[in-house]
């Protein structure tokens, strides 16, 4: 009975550089919820205020926001204050996962495999990072998604361009050992000991470049779901990803990005706590491979909506 879900707000748009993706995610979720008979309403947080959000008196909201001010704990904190149940992870997990550097520190503390890294504030720092990490090296802004601001440094002469590109997004950069191999992603659903991994997806992008264009615009990228891996390796990767999800404190859903090197060693790159829900998106793809249609996935996530801070 979808009527028990009450009046539902689909929060989309927002203020981040990923706004165009969020607009598409939100519309997809909104239409899916309507198809299931949910009293759903679109709410663009980039154009409307928190005061207006409070006036809507939503019984719960589906967060289809990506990036800053929507996926990083800011909106989650506002919803906690307003007492509106919301989908996905809480304030702390959202903030940690949005910070790729902090995520790596937690992964390393838990003994989970993640590429070596260095933090850079200046171009000189990147030259020092290259000595530590070797080439190729990835340079990216640690609080952006959708590969925005990311540059693969193949030779030392690429460093100035990588620095200039990433610096357009933020001043503190993440330099990371570049893992050569297969690109995988693992959606996770649920909470606590009920969290589980959906089928693994292998991403085969033109020229091995899974950038913004190949993610959301072009149709040349191939997706293999379930990924052609042995049962043993599949189980190992899924186990690592669920452990990473729980280590950060995620709940509801997330997507864990992984590189599998040429020795079949998996390396966790990052965790996305508000993954895309567009026609090109990966969580719906993995859900479908497990027998869950897009609209059913939306309902599943919405049913788990909650506030995470107990009120006395």
TrEMBL record:
<protein>
    <recommendedName>
        <fullName>D-alanine--D-alanine ligase</fullName>
        <ecNumber>6.3.2.4</ecNumber>
    </recommendedName>
</protein>
<dbReference type="GO" id="GO:0071555">
    <property type="term" value="P:cell wall organization"/>
</dbReference>
<feature type="binding site">
    <location>
        <position position="270"/>
    </location>
    <ligand>
        <name>Mg(2+) 1</name>
    </ligand>
</feature>
<comment type="similarity">
    <text>Belongs to the D-alanine--D-alanine ligase family.</text>
</comment>
<dbReference type="GO" id="GO:0009252">
    <property type="term" value="P:peptidoglycan biosynthetic process"/>
</dbReference>
<feature type="binding site">
    <location>
        <position position="272"/>
    </location>
    <ligand>
        <name>Mg(2+) 2</name>
    </ligand>
</feature>
<dbReference type="InterPro" id="IPR000291">
    <property type="entry name" value="D-Ala_lig_Van_CS"/>
</dbReference>
<feature type="active site">
    <location>
        <position position="18"/>
    </location>
</feature>
<feature type="active site">
    <location>
        <position position="146"/>
    </location>
</feature>
<keyword id="KW-0961">Cell wall biogenesis/degradation</keyword>
<keyword id="KW-0547">Nucleotide-binding</keyword>
<dbReference type="GO" id="GO:0008716">
    <property type="term" value="F:D-alanine-D-alanine ligase activity"/>
</dbReference>
<dbReference type="GO" id="GO:0005524">
    <property type="term" value="F:ATP binding"/>
</dbReference>
<keyword id="KW-0067">ATP-binding</keyword>
<dbReference type="InterPro" id="IPR011761">
    <property type="entry name" value="ATP-grasp"/>
</dbReference>
<dbReference type="InterPro" id="IPR005905">
    <property type="entry name" value="D_ala_D_ala"/>
</dbReference>
<keyword id="KW-0436">Ligase</keyword>
<dbReference type="InterPro" id="IPR011127">
    <property type="entry name" value="Dala_Dala_lig_N"/>
</dbReference>
<feature type="binding site">
    <location>
        <position position="257"/>
    </location>
    <ligand>
        <name>Mg(2+) 1</name>
    </ligand>
</feature>
<dbReference type="GO" id="GO:0005829">
    <property type="term" value="C:cytosol"/>
</dbReference>
<comment type="pathway">
    <text>Cell wall biogenesis; peptidoglycan biosynthesis.</text>
</comment>
<dbReference type="GO" id="GO:0046872">
    <property type="term" value="F:metal ion binding"/>
</dbReference>
<keyword id="KW-0460">Magnesium</keyword>
<keyword id="KW-0464">Manganese</keyword>
<dbReference type="Pfam" id="PF07478">
    <property type="entry name" value="Dala_Dala_lig_C"/>
</dbReference>
<dbReference type="InterPro" id="IPR016185">
    <property type="entry name" value="PreATP-grasp_dom_sf"/>
</dbReference>
<feature type="active site">
    <location>
        <position position="281"/>
    </location>
</feature>
<feature type="domain" description="ATP-grasp">
    <location>
        <begin position="104"/>
        <end position="303"/>
    </location>
</feature>
<dbReference type="InterPro" id="IPR011095">
    <property type="entry name" value="Dala_Dala_lig_C"/>
</dbReference>
<keyword id="KW-0573">Peptidoglycan synthesis</keyword>
<feature type="binding site">
    <location>
        <position position="270"/>
    </location>
    <ligand>
        <name>Mg(2+) 2</name>
    </ligand>
</feature>
<dbReference type="GO" id="GO:0008360">
    <property type="term" value="P:regulation of cell shape"/>
</dbReference>
<keyword id="KW-0133">Cell shape</keyword>
<keyword id="KW-0963">Cytoplasm</keyword>
<comment type="function">
    <text>Cell wall formation.</text>
</comment>
<dbReference type="Pfam" id="PF01820">
    <property type="entry name" value="Dala_Dala_lig_N"/>
</dbReference>
<keyword id="KW-0479">Metal-binding</keyword>
<dbReference type="InterPro" id="IPR013815">
    <property type="entry name" value="ATP_grasp_subdomain_1"/>
</dbReference>
């Amino acid at each position: 009975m979808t009527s028990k879900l009450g009046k539902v707000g689909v929060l989309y748009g927002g203020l981040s550089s990923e706004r165009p993706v969020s607009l598409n995610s939100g519309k997809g979720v909104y239409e899916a919820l309507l198809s299931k008979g949910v009293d759903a309403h679109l709410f663009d947080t980039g154009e409307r205020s928190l005061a207006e959000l409070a006036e809507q008196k939503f019984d719960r909201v589906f967060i289809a926001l990506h990036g800053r001010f929507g996926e990083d704990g800011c909106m989650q904190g506002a919803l906690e204050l307003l007492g509106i149940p919301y989908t996905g992870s809480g304030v702390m997990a959202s903030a940690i996962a949005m910070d790729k550097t902090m995520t790596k520190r937690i992964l390393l503390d838990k003994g989970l495999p993640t590429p070596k890294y260095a933090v850079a504030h200046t171009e000189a720092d990147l030259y020092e990072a290259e000595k530590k990490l070797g080439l190729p090296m990835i340079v990216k802004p640690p609080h952006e998604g959708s590969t925005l601001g990311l540059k693969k440094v193949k030779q030392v002469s690429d460093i100035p361009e990588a620095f200039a590109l990433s610096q357009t997004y933020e001043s503190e950069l993440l330099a990371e050992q570049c893992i050569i191999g297969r690109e995988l992603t693992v959606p996770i659903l649920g909470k606590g000991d009920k969290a589980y991994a959906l089928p693994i997806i292998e991403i085969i992008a033109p020229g091995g470049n899974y950038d913004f264009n190949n993610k959301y615009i072009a149709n040349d990228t191939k997706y293999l779901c379930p990924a052609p891996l042995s049962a043993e390796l599949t189980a190992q990767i899924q186990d690592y990803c669920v452990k990473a999800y729980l280590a950060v404190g995620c709940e509801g859903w997330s997507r864990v990005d992984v590189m599998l090197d040429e020795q079949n060693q998996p390396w966790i790159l990052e965790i996305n706590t508000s993954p895309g829900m567009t026609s090109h998106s990966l969580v719906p793809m993995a859900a479908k491979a497990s027998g869950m249609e897009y609209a059913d996935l939306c309902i599943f996530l919405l049913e788990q909506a909650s506030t995470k801070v107990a009120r006395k």
